[in-house]
Amino acid sequence: MTLPMLTAQGDPRHRWVSRFAVFLSTVGLLILAAFALLSAGWTALFLVTVVLSIAVHVRTRLRRWELDQPGADACFRFGPRASRSVRLADVAGIVIVDAPGSSSRGIPVTRDHERWWLVDDAGRALGQANTEGLDPADVARFRSALGVPFVPLALARRAGAVPHGMPWYQAHPAGAIAVAIPATAAVMLLVVLVPPYWA
After folding, report:
1. Alpha carbon 8 to chain centroid distance?
2. CB-based burial of residue 97 (10 Å sphere; 0-12 exposed, 13-18 middle, 19+ buried)?
3. What contacts 102, CB < 8 A, 6 or more positions away?
4. How far apart are CA 63 and CA 82, in angstroms?
5. Which residues contact 104 (CB under 8 A, 6 or more apart)?
6. Closest by alpha carbon to 125, among 146, 95, 157?
7. C-alpha angle 84-87-91 in degrees, rounded to nearest 5
8. Residue 128 has pLDDT above 90, yes or no
9. Which one-letter DSSP state was computed for residue 91?
């Protein structure tokens, strides 16, 4: 079996901006744990946060990219354990969706990352490769080696070239934010209104 020309392995350490960011995140989780003692609403929010944090950690550790040696059937593999595959010959270009990292009171906590939408000549989405948790140097090497145009989503939208099959919330980030803000406010209102355990 021929070894890949390039590989990249996800590592949760690459998600964080610094060690101080890890400290801030840990302190935030401890504060949320303290609030979890107040009411069922805060307890539920704490449990959901813990489950999601574990899921992101596991997903990041499983993320792997591989790029075959040049050839007619060369593929770009990505996803959990590089389980998804797209032939390089089918890829006409890549649309980049920026995913800003999180912050705490203006202090960056997690790094910005990108979602690469691989697109064929007909504008169909062939798959999405997420850079979260990958070493930025590895991402740069893949970007150079793939040899196809990279286009930001904003430019693709202006040109009417948004990939077919892209999820609505990624194709229209402004609309997704407009939905997320009232939804988040509603969840927090529900959490606060739940009576405390001693009520």
Report:
1. 16
2. buried
3. 108, 109, 110
4. 7
5. 24, 25, 28
6. 95
7. 105
8. yes
9. -
Here the tokens at position 159 are 């040109």
Residue 17: other Cβ atoms inside 10 A: 17
How many residues are present in the chain?
199
Q: How many whole angstroms from its chain centre is CA 148? A: 22
Encoded tokens for 160: 């009417």
The CA distance from 113 to 107, in Å, is 17
**pLDDT at position 175:** 85
Contact between 32 and 118 (Cβ < 8 Å):
no
CB hemisphere CA count around 63 (13 angstroms) = 24
Beta strands in the chain (DSSP E): 6-9, 64-67, 75-78, 84-87, 93-99, 103-104, 107-108, 113-119, 125-130, 150-152
Number of neighbouring beta carbons within 10 Å of residue 45? 19
What was the pLDDT predicted at 88? 95
Separation CA 120–CA 118 (nearest Å): 7
Quote the tokens at residue 20.
């101080």
Per-residue pLDDT of 83-123, as tens digits, reads: 999 999 999 999 999 999 988 878 899 999 999 999 999 99
Rounded to whole angstroms, how far apart are CA atoms 23 and 7? 30
Which amino acid is residue 114, in one-letter code? E
Token pair in block for residue 179: 């939905």
**Eight-state DSSP code of residue 124:** B
